[in-house]
């Protein structure tokens, strides 16, 4: 088979001494960058570009790719230990990862995150090896109507993030949508809800909202509970998974690795949407959805396997068509073009060492990441042994540096405080923060897709119902919306029959 022959060519590059060294450096830098809020893989890859000058394009791409999927591994650590997601892809991991850490199961949560990332990355790179050219053709067939329908399907599941209250979930989702509209309108160039402030023209950065709603709100709760005695429990816990837990998580890994890869293939979708869709899907189909949000291992396994699979999926349009699927791959595309390499349909024939070298390096990179991360978990998790006053101070400094380091704007620090207060108030009245952040992330994309689709169709909504893929997603959206009502009716009927 051509794929097998090409893969062998790639392993000749990836298994060379230089290849292994650059993959190792890439995944180590990526893991550290992923743990630190505010940096993210785009910044790390951009910093790597000057270092890659003079290197062969295949080795340069190995290094940058290692940073990219290494950051997806590292993002889970601060989410689980500190409730402070450093990158948007790790937000969904906080929903169950942080409760697990509070229950003294931080070691198990980090182990599941590492294993999920390994499984997601490995399954997706196998799919990438054999189906990259075919999937690339499917990806480019997606237009604004298909993207709108896909985003709508994600939003229809927002009610399941409400911890039992659909009304509260919808209210916080509406707030998220409102915040997403702040800034210059991308289609007309008109400032919206900026109130004359130049600081709001570019909108509000995701990191400000995520760290405010999750990390600073958590700090406020810790300050209020400062006089409570900390339970005498093992703050790290065991890393070992029982046979029952492995049996329970294995289907989650398989489902969400494929889902994450397919979402990652779509240009612009990325790991954030993949992780949210995976979490929501897993909660929907679970027999005990009420366990999610309270420390469910599947709630960590689903988003972590999906966002790592999406990182690999983003290479499909980059390598096969020369279209970047995310901000990070856009930076890699620019770096390759500077080196005289043009990713696209001819890359596999003109530069097989680059095309197959990066795919082969992902097999090695995923193994290296697992070998690096699992032994380090007991040492990383020791952050939980830090005394509460020091931990509170560290989280605040961590958030301030992360936000200021992105924009160098003191106004963003004020916004961080505002969202921290908002997140704390939402906790007091039991309003979930997850629908807010999901609506904020999807808000801008769904608006732009809807307006572009309406422009293409001259204002006719028929465009959403006459295209097969769009229509399929709309039907699935309706099912996602209706299934909870059927489940609730079924549960009520069952309770009545048991009472009788």
Automatic annotation (TrEMBL):
UniProt entry tagged with the keyword Cell cycle: no
Boundaries of every DUF112 domain copy: 20-438
Domain of life, per lineage: Bacteria
Keywords: Membrane, Transmembrane, Transmembrane helix
Parts of the chain that traverse the membrane: 12-36, 42-69, 109-132, 138-159, 166-184, 204-224, 258-280, 321-342, 354-380, 386-406, 413-443, 463-486
Name listed for the protein in its UniProt record: Tripartite tricarboxylate transporter permease
């Amino acid at each position: 088979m051509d794929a097998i022959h090409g893969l062998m060519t790639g392993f000749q590059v990836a298994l060379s001494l230089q290849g292994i060294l650059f993959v190792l450096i890439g995944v180590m830098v990526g893991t550290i960058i992923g743990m630190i809020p505010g940096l993210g893989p785009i910044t790390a890859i951009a910093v790597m570009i000057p270092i890659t000058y003079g290197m062969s394009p295949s080795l340069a791409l190995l290094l940058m790719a290692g940073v990219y999927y290494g950051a997806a591994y590292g993002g889970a650590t601060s989410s689980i230990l500190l409730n402070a997601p450093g990158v948007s892809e790790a937000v969904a991991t906080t929903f169950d990862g942080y409760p697990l850490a509070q229950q003294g199961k931080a070691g198990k949560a980090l182990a599941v995150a590492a294993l999920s990332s390994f499984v997601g990355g490995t399954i997706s790179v196998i799919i990438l090896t054999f189906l990259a050219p075919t999937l690339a053709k499917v990806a480019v067939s997606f237009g604004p109507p298909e993207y709108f329908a896909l985003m709508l399907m994600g939003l229809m599941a927002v009610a399941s993030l409400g911890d039992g209250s659909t009304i509260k979930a919808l209210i916080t989702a509406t707030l998220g949508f409102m915040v997403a509209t702040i800034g210059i309108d991308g289609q007309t160039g008109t400032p919206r809800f900026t109130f004359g402030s130049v600081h709001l023209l570019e909108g509000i950065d995701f990191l400000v909202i995520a760290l405010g709603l999750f990390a600073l709100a958590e700090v406020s709760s810790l300050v209020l509970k400062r006089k409570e005695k900390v339970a005498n429990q093992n703050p790290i816990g065991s890393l070992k998974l029982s046979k029952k837990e492995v049996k329970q998580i294995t289907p989650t890994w398989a489902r969400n690795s494929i889902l994450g890869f397919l979402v990652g293939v779509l240009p612009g979708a990325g790991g954030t949407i993949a992780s949210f869709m995976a979490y929501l899907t897993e909660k929907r189909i679970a027999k005990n959805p009420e366990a999610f949000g309270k420390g469910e291992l599947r709630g960590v396994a689903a988003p972590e396997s999906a966002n790592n699979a999406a990182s690999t999926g983003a290479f499909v349009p980059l390598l096969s068509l020369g279209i970047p699927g995310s901000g990070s791959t856009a930076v890699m595309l620019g770096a390759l073009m500077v080196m005289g390499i043009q990713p696209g349909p001819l890359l596999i024939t003109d530069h097989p060492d680059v095309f197959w070298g990066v795919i082969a390096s992902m097999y090695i990179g995923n193994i290296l990441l697992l070998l690096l991360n699992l032994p380090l978990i007991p040492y990383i998790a020791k952050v939980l042994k830090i005394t509460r006053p020091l931990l509170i101070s560290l989280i605040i400094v961590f958030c301030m540096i992360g936000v200021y380091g992105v924009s160098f704007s003191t106004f963003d620090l004020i916004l961080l405080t505002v969202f921290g207060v908002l997140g704390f108030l939402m906790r007091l009245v039991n309003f979930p923060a997850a629908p807010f952040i999901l609506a904020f992330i999807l808000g801008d994309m769904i608006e732009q897709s809807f307006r572009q689709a309406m422009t293409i169709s001259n204002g006719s909504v028929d465009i959403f119902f006459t295209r097969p893929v769009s229509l399929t997603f709309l039907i699935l959206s309706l099912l996602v919306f209706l299934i909870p009502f059927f489940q609730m009716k079924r549960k009520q009927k069952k309770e009545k029959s048991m009472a009788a």
